[in-house]
């Protein structure tokens, strides 16, 4: 198979882990006889420094003509004082819009090798295996107006939660399709006791459910879902929810596995290349120290193999290699037991690659 992959390393540890995903994919290409071509683009703070914008046009073009996109992370203290439209994070919001990345998928599952780092008791998390499906291009983060105004002569402010019904249907349908290949349960998370948008969300979920008779649908209010996630995470299979609810719940769910450095994500496009990135940010506090955990980025590459290219065996080979290396005791400092020796980013990447 021949594929072109756009690589946007970004800032901070993004630059350190992106190379890990590329070398692991090269190893997969060699072992299974695929030809992956990598093309590099800039995004975030580095792009601001070099080109004066967090998302240069040529990066958008590069992504649009690629078969998939790998992204490291963007941002850092250096750019925090810039005006809003010039922040690295704007590049991220804009690429989601440009590539129509309407869904963010975050698998969260129990990992024996790192379970000790979870703040939750082993019996609570053992066997947990869920997929959070977050709507990514609508809802509260994109609704207009979003601005400061005056009301009765006083300063006031408005943000808007807006959806077209078709946008709600699209994300819920994807959640059901994904649930069909998992444990066949969808939990639709909303705030239907307060928000009109949530009432339409709930109705739409009921309508879509009719097309998936084998999948069980349940509704849960977002405040309850936040509690249930840490009280009894094993009850969940696929969760689907609005942009901001999903932002909060997916970060909360990530705590279950022990470290941010372990979790991959996929952002699904409605009409083009999907984008894969670790859920962690640029972690400026550990940048350049060769201690960042590359696993989240490498597992994101595995999601790419499976989701964009349909290469199940290859994806499983990456996941297996990661598991084997962790079980052999090689761990970066974020997931190592206290007092145990650790390996650096580069060594970890090298071991995973060699295992493949
Ligand atoms: P963002 O706003 O971009 O999401 P953030 O401020 O939420 O960023 P992260 O950059 O995700 O924060 O990191 C939070 C902390 O978690 C970091 O300071 C770092 O110590 C730790 N961390 C994040 N990713 C990793 C990783 N891959 N390996 C080791 N530690 C990590
Ligand atoms: Mg964050």
Provide an overview of this structure.
The radius of gyration is 20 Å and the shape is globular. The longest helix is centred in the first third of the chain and has 20 residues, at 13-32. α1 runs parallel beside α12 (345-355). The strands form two sheets. A ten-stranded mixed sheet has the order 2-1-3-12-11-4-5-10-8-9, with helices on both faces. A two-stranded antiparallel sheet has the order 6-7. The two termini are 18 Å apart. β1 (2-10), α1 (13-32) and β2 form a beta-alpha-beta unit. The mean pLDDT is 96. The protein is an alpha/beta fold and 356 residues long. It contains twelve helices and twelve strands. 40% of the residues lie in helices and 24% in strands. The chain has helices spanning 13-32, 45-51, 57-64, 88-98, 122-125, 165-180, 196-209, 222-231, 243-254, 295-307, 312-327, 345-355, and strands at 2-10, 35-40, 68-73, 101-109, 129-135, 139-151, 154-162, 185-190, 216-221, 238-241, 264-269, 274-278. It binds adenosine-5'-triphosphate and magnesium ion (MG). Adenosine-5'-triphosphate (ATP) is lined by residues 13, 73, 75, 260-261, 280-283, 285-286, 292-293, 296, 334.
């Amino acid at each position: 198979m021949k594929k072109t992959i756009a690589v946007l390393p970004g800032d901070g540890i993004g630059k350190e882990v992106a190379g890990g995903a590329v070398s692991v994919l090269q190893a997969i290409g060699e072992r299974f006889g695929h030809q992956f071509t990598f093309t590099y683009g800039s995004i975030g703070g580095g792009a601001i420094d070099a080109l004066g914008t967090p998302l240069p046009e040529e990066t958008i073009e590069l992504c649009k003509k690629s078969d998939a996109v790998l992204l490291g992370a963007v941002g850092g203290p250096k750019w925090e004082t810039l005006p809003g439209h010039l922040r690295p994070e704007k590049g991220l919001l804009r690429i989601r819009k440009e590539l129509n990345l309407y869904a963010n998928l975050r698998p969260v599952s129990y990992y024996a090798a790192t379970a000790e780092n979870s703040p939750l008791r082993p019996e609570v998390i053992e066997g947990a295996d869920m997929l959070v499906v977050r709507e990514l291009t609508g809802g509260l983060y994109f609704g207009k107006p979003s601005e400061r105004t005056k009301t009765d002569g006083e300063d006031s402010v408005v943000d808007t939660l807006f959806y077209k019904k078709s946008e709600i249907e699209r994300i819920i349908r994807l959640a059901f399709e994904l649930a069909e290949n998992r444990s066949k349960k969808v939990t639709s998370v909303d705030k239907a006791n307060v928000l009109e948008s949530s009432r339409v969300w709930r109705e739409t979920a009921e309508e879509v459910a009719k097309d998936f008779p084998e999948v069980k649908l349940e509704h849960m209010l977002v405040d309850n879902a936040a509690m249930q996630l840490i009280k009894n995470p094993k009850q969940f299979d696929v969760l689907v929810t609005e942009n901001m609810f999903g932002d909060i719940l997916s970060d909360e769910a990530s705590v279950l596995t022990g470290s941010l450095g372990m979790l991959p994500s996929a952002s699904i496009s409605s009409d083009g290349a999907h984008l894969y990135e670790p859920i962690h940010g640029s972690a400026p506090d550990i940048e350049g120290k060769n201690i960042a955990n590359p696993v989240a980025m490498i597992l994101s590459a595995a999601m790419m193999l499976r989701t964009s290219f349909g290469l199940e065996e290859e994806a499983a080979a990456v996941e297996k290699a990661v598991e084997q290396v962790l079980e052999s005791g090689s761990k970066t400092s974020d997931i190592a037991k206290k007092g145990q020796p650790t390996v650096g980013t580069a060594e970890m990447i090298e071991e995973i690659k060699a295992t493949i």
